[in-house]
Design brief:
alpha/beta, Rossmann fold, 2 domains, five-stranded parallel sheet, two-stranded antiparallel ribbon, 9 strands, elongated
Length: about 375
């Protein structure tokens, strides 16, 4: 970093999304507003939605980059009081003010327990919009109307160095929120991705090339880049294809970039060299595979981690002992993230007992 370059996170302690989860909940419980800061595509919005799902809160997503200051204060309205005309402001319906009824949660069939007001693209708003948000963020008021006590609030924005259409927060706003810079962590993301059902080939690829999880350069000239968000898109687009047809390369390139798409599709072709889960289960100690190819080993760990379940745990655990301990850990972590009850499996417990000392030394 050159002498003239300012690191916007130099005076903070960035946290991964797993740790940020608890810290955001701390803010919500104390009615303090957390401000999530990171480069684009890291998962700030997903974090808010995950917490909302746990709390059974309705997310109210407000993009400060697309609204006018009057939308935060309310619209002027003229009426008569005691025979004379007076003016006041009527709040927008999107804000959960006192007296508003909580709608039904379609997942549970019960009313939501509260609102999660999410002011996204917070520092993309103009200074006038930011000024209009002072009262909302600190005083929890929309014009003269108070927010419901069951409403919590969070803001999010990109780094000023990211060239992502952001404005510096005014000093008056800086002290109205608690700033939480978010960093990318491949281990945390892999655990989330396994639980979320992300294509196991992508998990294996990121394990093999962790630097590809988030390759963001604010000066890049490509149409897109690799990040947690675009890898999630890739999973949705290509998960159903095995193998992935080369005809899908233009779409993949438009999602994660041409170079990354070519490298990823080449990596997935490794799966044509490895045995199927059925072949492994039939002959866990004798089935053959290219044991000297690192990409194959990563692919095998990902394949086993994705398919391991109660009915085949004995055979697959017997097989992965043929892989290095790091790959055994990778496969089991992926399995348990996907299905936590597997921790009760007797074969997995036996594996932990055998490898306990090795795992302790690696911590």
């Amino acid at each position: 970093m050159s002498r003239n370059t300012i690191d916007p996170l130099a005076n903070y302690l960035p946290v991964n999304l797993h740790d940020a989860y608890e810290l955001v909940e701390d803010c919500f419980n104390a009615k303090v507003v957390p401000n999530l800061i990171s480069s684009p595509g890291v998962g700030k919005s997903s974090l808010i939605h995950q917490i909302a799902e746990k709390w059974e809160y309705l997310v109210v997503d407000v993009r400060l980059s697309t609204i006018d200051p009057t939308e935060l204060n309310g619209f002027p309205h003229i009426w008569e009081v005691d025979g004379r005309k007076v003016a006041s402001y009527i709040p927008m319906d999107m804000f959960p003010i006192v007296g508003k009824t909580l709608p039904t949660n379609p997942t549970t069939g019960r009313a939501y327990k509260g609102w999660m007001l999410f002011l996204d693209e917070f520092n993309a708003g103009t200074l006038l919009v930011q000024a209009a948000a002072y009262k909302l963020v600190l005083d929890r008021m929309v014009g003269m109307y108070k927010l419901d006590d069951r409403c919590v609030m969070a803001t999010a924005g990109n780094l000023t160095t990211d060239k992502a259409i952001v404005n510096r927060l005014g000093t008056a706003m800086q002290s109205r929120v608690s700033h939480l810079p978010i960093k990318v962590c491949t281990e945390t993301w892999n655990f989330w991705a396994a639980a979320a059902g992300i294509d196991h080939r992508i998990l294996s690829y990121i394990k093999r090339f962790p630097e590809h999880l988030h390759k963001f350069d604010p000066n890049h000239t490509d149409l897109t880049f690799e990040c947690p968000r675009t890898w999630e898109f890739m999973s949705k687009l290509t998960k159903k294809y095995d193998p992935i047809p080369i005809s899908k390369l233009p779409l993949m390139a438009g999602t994660i970039g041409l170079g990354a798409a070519r490298q990823y599709i080449a990596f997935t072709q490794v799966y044509g060299k490895i045995p199927t889960i059925e072949e492994i289960v039939r002959n866990p100690s004798g089935v053959t595979f290219p044991e000297d190819d690192p990409s194959v080993i990563y692919a095998m760990a990902g394949l086993v981690g994705y398919h391991l379940k109660e009915s085949n745990a004995k055979e697959l655990l017997q097989f992965i002992t043929r892989l290095g301990i790091d790959h055994q850990v990778t496969a089991l972590r992926q399995s348990v993230a996907r299905e936590y009850d597997l921790l009760q499996n007797i074969h997995i417990q036996d594996w932990y007992k055998v490898n306990a000392q090795e795992l302790i030394q690696r911590k």
